[in-house]
Write a structure and sequence with these properties.
By secondary structure, the protein is mainly α. The protein is built from six helices and no strands. The relative contact order is 0.18.
Length: 187
Amino acid sequence: MAQPKSLLSFNRADVLEQAICLKLNRMGFYPWVRLFFQAISRLGDGVLWYAIILALPILYGSMGLRAAGHIFVCGVLCVCLYQFLKNKLVRERPFIRFLSIQAHTMPLDRYSFPSGHTMNAVNFAILLAWFFPQLTWLVMPFAVLVGMSRMVLGMHYPTDVLVGSLLGACIAIGSLEWYPAGMFAAH
């Protein structure tokens, strides 16, 4: 099956980022490092975010329900955007492009740009920190670890993670610019 034509050429960037990818990926050869980042990545698949969103109405009542709705809408927007971009930009994952980089986990899809895990992690972390500042200590470091996990596990290049972070931040901050009290706040 022929690979779809990308709107951009990533060949030069792939080669420039190969050394960083390889250095980070080698950390995954230590079993405890690999297991730690596999767990972080798995939680970043949505498990932690879904659990938090479901817990918000239980913990915070109607305020939690409104915030959960806002966070859910932004999460759906992130998923739609990264799937669209991945299918248009078709950047092969580092472990596919370079034999020296090992996949320490199974990818959810074929292409790497941008990192959907990181986009969602940053989006959710910013929104949760905005609506519930007491959770900042948990969600911000977790978002950083999700981005790091994607590189250690051989799934993403640094630019995938950087762009995923920026897009996730733009969606979260943009939504808060339009709806500082949340999309579902009583007006």
